[in-house]
Design a protein that fits this description.
mainly alpha
């Protein structure tokens, strides 16, 4: 029964996040906010809503391992799985933006800050505030560098109605909040039943589920020959995961971080971030890079389940 509840709750998370993203875009477009600002402030954060809801709920209930593992696992899945699939199915990827010069540092900086803050074995409210300030700095950087995100063109042609938009926003938040609650509860039960640690459940099961919005958006972009946009989306989502998600979760409740126990998984997230920098530096946006990323993901999963 816990498996069924878990699957339903993950579905609720994904659909809830989708409702919130689309309706937020409509509100912003209605008030003539630029597409760039919409993408930087709503879409990137919107795709991280499932991670945010799950980690904050886990933190509130004292399941700190799930909260942290969810962020580490999402980083691994976002780079290895999402970009790996994008590189495999995209016909051609030719970014107009110099991703290495402008964005590569943001692929590494948040995880480095996380490691430094976790050296004392915990993330507290002070660390959380610093994480959130880092997110604000990232948004300021995006605005200053005039980075734009892809916005669904169909939304621009739809008539705006506050009643419908407000209702769907409420539904989206309900789906996300309720889904996150039952995702954590059912995942914890599954872990106890199989004698598996909450860290492993958060690292794989929950992290994969909460990465579905990024996966869906990126595959859609790749099929429309806009796969280069997925790279920026992944960098932005990972920044949001390490800043907003961990930041808010550590404010809700102090999170224990055992860097030595979970060295392999944290190292894997760091190495994949380095690989992303290497790919952008050498413009290796091809199927070979996609295969390598997926192989790394397979190795991480094999080690986790060993």
């Amino acid at each position: 029964m816990d498996f069924i509840i878990f699957l339903i709750s993950m579905g609720a998370l994904v659909y809830g996040a989708d409702f919130i993203i689309q309706q937020s875009e409509k509100i912003a477009l209605h008030y003539n906010i630029s597409a760039f600002v919409i993408g930087a402030t709503l879409v990137a954060l919107g795709t991280s809503l499932p991670e945010m809801a799950v980690s904050m709920t886990a933190s509130f209930h004292g399941n700190g391992d799930i909260a942290v593992a969810n962020v580490i696992g999402s980083t691994i899945f976002n780079i290895a799985l999402v970009l790996g699939v994008v590189f495999l199915i995209a016909k051609k990827i030719t970014p107009q933006r110099d991703l290495f010069a402008k964005d590569s540092a943001w692929a590494l900086f948040p995880i480095l800050v996380f490691i430094l803050m976790g050296l004392d074995g915990k993330l507290n409210a002070t660390d959380g505030v610093l994480f959130i300030l880092l997110m604000i700095a990232y948004l300021a950087f995006l605005i200053g560098s005039n980075q734009m995100e892809e916005i669904d063109e169909e939304l621009k042609n739809e008539k705006f109605a506050w009643g419908k938009t407000s209702l769907l926003l409420i539904v989206g938040f309900i789906f996300t909040i309720v889904g996150s609650h039952y995702a954590v509860e059912s995942a914890s039960s599954i872990a106890r039943f199989f004698g598996v640690s909450e860290w492993i459940i958060g690292l794989f099961l929950i992290a994969f589920g909460t990465s579905l919005p990024e996966l869906t958006i990126s595959i859609k972009a790749a099929m429309n020959n806009n796969a280069d946009l997925a790279i920026g989306n992944i960098i932005g989502s990972n920044v949001a995961n390490f800043t907003m998600v961990l930041g808010l979760s550590s404010i809700v409740n102090t999170l224990n971080v055992n860097l030595s126990t979970y060295f392999f998984d944290i190292a894997a997230a760091f190495i994949l971030s380095l690989m992303l920098v290497f790919i952008t530096a050498n413009k290796l946006y091809n199927k070979s890079a996609g295969i390598v990323l997926l192989v790394v993901l397979a190795l991480v999963i094999q080690n986790g389940l060993a």
